Amino acid sequence: MVKTAVYGSGSWGTAIASVLAGAGHHTYLIGRHSDEIELMRRKRENVHYLPGVFLPDNILPTTDLTKLEADAVFICVPSHAVREGARRIKPYLKQDCIIVNTAKGLEEGTHLRLSEVLAEELPLMPLAVLSGPSHAEEVGRNMPTAVVVSASDKQTAERVQDLIMTPMFRVYVNLDLVGVELGGALKNIIALCSGAAEGMNTRDNAKAALMTRGLAEITRLGVALGADPLTFSGLSGLGDLIVTCTSQHSRNLRAGRALGAGKPLDQVLKEVGMVVEGVRTTKSAYELSRKIGISMPITEQAFKVLFEGANPDKAIANLMMRGKKHEYEPLVSFES
Ligand SMILES: NC(=O)C1=CN([C@@H]2O[C@H](COP(=O)(O)OP(=O)(O)OC[C@H]3O[C@@H](n4cnc5c(N)ncnc54)[C@H](O)[C@@H]3O)[C@@H](O)[C@H]2O)C=CC1
Ligand SMILES: O=C(CO)COP(=O)(O)O
């Protein structure tokens, strides 16, 4: 029998544990707060992060890091905690254990993809990435979901596919690791902007424009970094963009709505109460696009609103009043 563990017991860690348990694996769900874990064990529910989802007996909530001695460990902490998390779990991992990152973001400062962060911290371990349109609230309730797994080698990706695929959790393999990771990380910026558009009552046309032109700039950055453009019309591109920009469950969309309605960022983050990855990712993607000379106008305006106090109305005007363009310009365009 395969032994699995999930590091991070928030909403996504709990949902991933429920898929693994549904696939028949005894799964340790490893959290850091003993009171939360104790409550989970007693109520068989993650009351704070995923209320209403029953945890079956083969999910074993714990704070005991020795339970990381598994065949596969799923990393389900926010992106800013991935490096520190990797250092923390390293002493407990088996040598041939597969590490599957599920966090969506870029490392602040270095702008590294999270598999690159993990490769630095856990250089000898096989690494994979799971991404795609998949809200915990639906996955935890066993609702039909399709995702994508990537790795730098086919065997690792297919092992993860075998491990976690169930009749309600369909897993595709895509070996374009760069594209899969960037699609999952960058869509959160566009979800924040789509939410802001809703919060400002700009309605549907603006949202559709943001999603479509957002995908264009995600693809532009991705291709410049070596991704296959086709990946961005797949589950970890268009698919994740659709779900995060439209779902009632999206944390990034909710945060964007509140920002668009004029609430300050600190208050918005407190009110959402779970990680809103798009905020940090906006900063990283903006810095990265400047560093390599790729035009990302929506990300640039999001950066100005989030970090420079720019007015969202002015941000929309800035996007609408840009110079005339052709819809399809060369994918790697170094204009400013
Ligand atoms: N919630 C969802 O539907 C999905 C989330 N994800 C990604 O999964 C990652 C985690 O997101 P959620 O579970 O939604 O966040 P969350 O806010 O629901 O839970 C985060 C969990 O990580 C823990 N945590 C925070 N900082 C930590 C640290 N320094 N060390 C160890 N644990 C720490 C928290 O205590 C909490 O248990 C994010 O990158 C998110 O983009 C991906 C797909 C779906
Ligand atoms: O990545 C996700 C769904 O695929 C989760 O998005 P949110 O963090 O916006 O809820």
TrEMBL record:
One of its GO terms (molecular function) is glycerol-3-phosphate dehydrogenase (NADP+) activity. The keyword Magnesium does not apply. It is found in: Cytoplasm. Sn-glycerol 3-phosphate binds at K104, G132, S134, K187, D240, S250, R251, N252. Substrate binds at K104, R251, N252. Coiled coil: none annotated. NADPH binds at S11, W12, R32, H33, Y49, K104, A136, R251, V275, E277. One of its GO terms (biological process) is glycerol-3-phosphate biosynthetic process. Its EC number is 1.1.1.94. The keyword Lipid biosynthesis applies. Residues 176-316 form the Glycerol-3-phosphate dehydrogenase NAD-dependent C-terminal domain. Residues 4-156 form the Glycerol-3-phosphate dehydrogenase NAD-dependent N-terminal domain. It is an enzyme of class 1 (oxidoreductase). GO terms for cellular component: cytosol. It catalyses: sn-glycerol 3-phosphate + NADP(+) = dihydroxyacetone phosphate + NADPH + H(+); sn-glycerol 3-phosphate + NAD(+) = dihydroxyacetone phosphate + NADH + H(+). InterPro entries: 6-PGluconate_DH-like_C_sf (IPR008927), 6PGD_dom2 (IPR013328), G3P_DH_NAD-dep (IPR006168), G3P_DH_NAD-dep_C (IPR006109), G3P_DH_NAD-dep_N (IPR011128), NAD(P)-bd_dom_sf (IPR036291). NAD(+) binds at G8, S9, G10, S11, W12, G13, A136, R251. Keywords: Cytoplasm, Lipid biosynthesis, Lipid metabolism, NAD, NADP, Nucleotide-binding, Oxidoreductase, Phospholipid biosynthesis, Phospholipid metabolism. Pathway: Membrane lipid metabolism; glycerophospholipid metabolism. Catalyzes the reduction of the glycolytic intermediate dihydroxyacetone phosphate (DHAP) to sn-glycerol 3-phosphate (G3P), the key precursor for phospholipid synthesis. Belongs to the NAD-dependent glycerol-3-phosphate dehydrogenase family. This is Glycerol-3-phosphate dehydrogenase [NAD(P)+]. It comes from Syntrophobotulus glycolicus (strain DSM 8271 / FlGlyR).
